[in-house]
Amino acid sequence: MAFQISNQRLFYGWWIVAAAAAGLAVHFGPIVVGTFGVFLLALEGEFGFSRSELSGAMALALLGVTVAQPRMGRIIDRFGPRQVIMVSGLLMSAVFASLFLLTSALWHLYLIFFLLGCLSAGCNPVPYAKVVSNWFDQRRGIALALAIAGSSLGVSLMAPLANWLISDYGWRIAYALLGVIVVAVMLPTAALILRDSPETMGVSPDGSLPRNTSAAVTTYGFSLPQALRMPNFWALMVVFFVVSIAFHACVIHLVPMLTDAGMTVEEAAGLAALLGVGILLGRVVTGILLDRFFAAQVAAAVFLLFMLAILLLRMGGSAWTSYLAVALLGLAHGAEFDLMAYMVSRYFGLSSFGEIYGYVFAAFNLGGMIGAPLMGMGYDLTGAYTTGLSVLAVMPAIAIVIVLRLGPYPVDFDAARPARFKVV
Q1: pLDDT value for 414
Q2: CATH topology of domain 8-199+217-408
Q3: Under a CB-based contact definition with an 8 Å cutoff, are residues 366 and 219 in contact?
Q4: HSE on the CB side for 155, CA within 13 Å?
Q5: Mind listing the pLDDT tens digit for each residue in 110-136?
Q6: What is the pLDDT of residue 418?
Q7: More confident position, 126 or 267
């Protein structure tokens, strides 16, 4: 009987992963960041905004995430991810759809994108990663990978979908319809399937039965004040900050970069879909590797691929270099969110996971806030992306040096649960 219940609960854990993947397919990354390059060209033609001005909108969106994420992480830890996801998803979809009413005033665009960043802090990978980490321990790497792979699927679909909607219905209708898609996917999956922890269904992580199913299971880990005194916390902040500078600069300007190299908008949007496929593959492979190898070594290999992708984009000039660069860019980025969530859970535990991960995620978004407009400014000043790409190639190299100096995980929180790590 116990064997049957265990397998049923473990099977439901994979339903949690599927629900998280569906929600992440329509979160801030695919919907706002993934379509920005396509909408950039439409808004540039409609209002005459420069690319650096338009990149400023994305910078403000990332600023919104950066400002809101740590506090939202604390709310997630206190009230549970599920409720936060539903409220945040509803508000984010409404604000995104309101771009249907966008005026020619640049401040209007900036205000909406800043609000999008703030509101999306409750329905991005942070709350979903906490749910999945609560449900899985031994297979946490692959579970996180499959959940966050939903974002990859979203990236691969949203850029071509946005381009088709803009071509057939105009950019205003495209914004409105994408906003409807967000609420139609995110709310039902969160309300009907997500459960904050396996304890609510009488089991422990990985679907096993607890020894005393009537007793509450305490989650262990470091508190935020404890984490702030640990060098590894600041090391992870720096690593994902510098990597994000390069990543957001490349992805947000990918479609214009490829069109400047001679591709049509349709070809560039299609190649952006390849980015999503690479991200999907990168996430699954990284999840498997994280369950078998030390995360810092996996991270170093990923950042090396990222550096190679940037150098290939700088070379340009031929179709094969563009395809290979986009594929490697996708593989590398596919690993970043997996690495971020997994390393936070292993180095700091789950009791304050939302808040600690919120700070690391905020650093990641702060890097994007800097990288995107700098890339736009470099283009406006030089008329090309080559100088910016040369600078960006240094960022993954810095990250490699830092991650290779990280120490071992302090303890297996879920297995050992020592009393000295209990957060009261």
Answers
A1: 52
A2: Growth Hormone; Chain: A; (1.20.1250)
A3: no
A4: 29
A5: 999 999 999 988 888 889 988 998 888
A6: 40
A7: 126
Token code pair at residue 96: 């995104």
- CA-to-CA dists, residue 161 to 4, 175, 281, 294, angstroms: 43, 11, 21, 38
Residue 200: is it exposed, middle or buried by C-beta count within 10 angstroms (0-12/13-18/19+)? exposed
Q: What DSSP line would sit under 251-274, residue for residue? A: HHTHHHHHHHTT--HHHHHHHHHH
Mean pLDDT to the nearest integer, 195-212: 68
Q: Token pair for residue 151?
A: 């974002």
> In the chain, what is the greatest distance between 2 CA atoms, to the nearest angstrom?
70
Report whether pLDDT(199) > 80.
no
Confidence at 280, pLDDT banded by 50, 70, 90: confident
pLDDT of residue 219: 57
Please write down the long-range contacts of 368-371, taking CB distance under 8 Å and 24 or more positions apart: 368/33, 368/58, 368/59, 368/62, 368/244, 368/245, 368/247, 368/248, 368/252, 369/58, 369/59, 369/60, 369/62, 369/63, 369/66, 369/248, 370/59, 370/245, 371/244, 371/245, 371/246, 371/247, 371/248, 371/249
Retrieve residue 128's tokens: 């979903």
Q: Within a 10 A sphere around the Cβ of 67, how many other Cβ atoms?
A: 17
Q: Is 108 exposed, middle or buried (0-12, 13-18, 19+ CB in 10 A)?
A: middle
Instruction: Give 46's contacts (C-beta < 8 A, 6+ positions apart).
Output: 171
Please give the Cα distance from 422 to 115 (Å, whole number): 36
DSSP of 319-372: HHHHHHHHHHHHHHHHHHHHHHHHHHHHHHBSTTHHHHHHHHHHHHHHHHHHHH
Across the chain, mean pLDDT equals 82
Per-residue pLDDT band for 261 (boundaries 50, 70, 90) equals: low
* Burial call 208-232: b when 16+ CB within 10 Å, e when fewer: beeeeeeeeeebbbbbbebbeeeeb
pLDDT in tens, 366-382: 887 788 778 878 777 77
Which pair of structure tokens corresponds to residue 141? 């790497």
Percent of the chain with pLDDT over 90: 25
pTM: 0.77
Return the residue matching tokens 């949007």.
269
Rounded Cα–Cα distance for residues 87 and 57 (Å): 24
